[in-house]
Amino acid sequence: MQFRRIKKWNKLFLPHHKLRYYPPKFVLRDPVLEGVYRALSNGQQVAVVVISTSNLRELSQQLELNQLNEYKEELRIGFKHIFEDSIYSNDLLVVHDYYSDGLTIFLKINDEKQNVMQIENMLRTLTPKLEKWIYTKYPYFNHTFDIGYMFIERLHYTTQDALYTAQQQAVAMAEKRIQSRYIETLIEMRDIIQKREITLLAQPIIDLSTNKIKAWEVLTRGPKGTVLENPLQLFSLARQSNLNYDLELLVLEKAFKLINRVRCLDDVFINFTPLTLGNKRFIPALNKLLTNYPEIKPNKIIFEVTERDSIEGLTFFHDNIKQLRQKGFRIAVDDTGAGYSSLHTISELLPDIIKIDRSVIQDIDTNKVKESMLKGLILIAKETGSLVVAEGIEKKEEADVLVRNRVDLAQGYFYAKPGTLEKERVAFL
Fold it and tell me: What's the CA gap between 79 and 105, in Å, rounded?
């Protein structure tokens, strides 16, 4: 089985002039690579999602080879049909059988930030429908699925190599039955956390009324020179390994240490998922850090609720937020305007700061509808008493629209790219 997979992938990655030695059907796979390359070139993220049948071995014993192939084809048709009828249809690049024991789905994600929950919410919605679909075709068999996903990183690889690497990592996460590879991944993540092998960068947030730095957002990178340097990869593996809380707590500790070392007096935004903020261990861990770093002033720290994630069902979330505010910390809601859940979170939390997503800001100078959306979000912020931060500003024309609409704060490459906090502070002095 493993040899057949390697042979299959080797054919896929051969140069075009070598494809003439193989049957023409292999050429049909080129559009997949072209679609992935085009999405990456357009600044989009591409996620590889692997779905495999958990008890495929048992199924293989019950079906003939041709029936097994029909089952796999039904799986592909079913998922494609379900996906195209869903709200996620615009995110789909292709459904393919690159992974011979299941499906490989390629998704394009416009948001440049890590958005693991976007994928998990999609899978949580669509997987039961897929199970129902396949059950109607094979009612005599119990169907369960293993799922893994990974983002494609193309900084140091060709598109083909990056695609293959991401797909193999997604397979490893899906098939936790392949214990050796899964445990290897788990150990790798634990090793990064234990050795504290993450780097913190900072991006300035500008006060548009004075054009001076008002705050900084802390951004995380994994071990330098590795695939996990990319935060998408790092946090994807952390979440699938159930180490997201440990990683985010490490980020908080290193952020406190950094603020203390450089004697930063500006406000600092630190990103957290609702799962971490709603963890019952979070407040005791924070209290310990405050004891270890007495110089940290809570009123200068903003806990930024990240990802389009629901806060419902998190038992300790609201109580933890209440305790954070009692200590003097402030709360921000990220990705506003990118989906319903962020608006719901605003109504639930009444945050101190609302961060407007890049999807609203991009080309707002030439799109009146987006400017109307901006005005609506500003009205919501006034109702909740929140400051507004516009994210992802990349050109002067976008910044001019923000100034015209009296947005409080702005952040983006137009002002500065992320860098080390020490260097960035010196550059803006």
Answer: 9
Residue 115 and residue 73 in one domain: yes
Of 332, 388, 329, which Cα lies nearest the Cα of 356?
388
Residue 319's H or E segment, with its range, is helix 317-327
Residue 212 maps to which CATH number? 3.20.20.450
Are 223 and 336 within one domain? yes
**What is the rounded radius of gyration, in angstroms, for the C-alpha atoms of the chain?**
23
Same domain, 108 and 135: yes
pLDDT tens for residues 100-152?
A: 566 787 887 765 444 666 777 777 788 888 888 877 877 766 667 778 888 87
List pLDDT tens digits, range 185-237.
Answer: 777 888 899 899 999 999 999 999 999 999 999 999 999 888 788 887 888 88
Domain count, the chain: 2
* pTM reported for the whole predicted model: 0.66
Question: Both 171 and 210 in a single domain?
Answer: no
Complete DSSP assignment for 96-129:
E-SSTTEEEEEEEE---S--HHHHHHHHHHHHHH
DSSP state of 314: -
- Give rounded-to-5 percent helix, strand, coil for the chain: 55, 20, 30
DSSP type of residue 419: B
- Residues forming a β-bridge with 146: 52
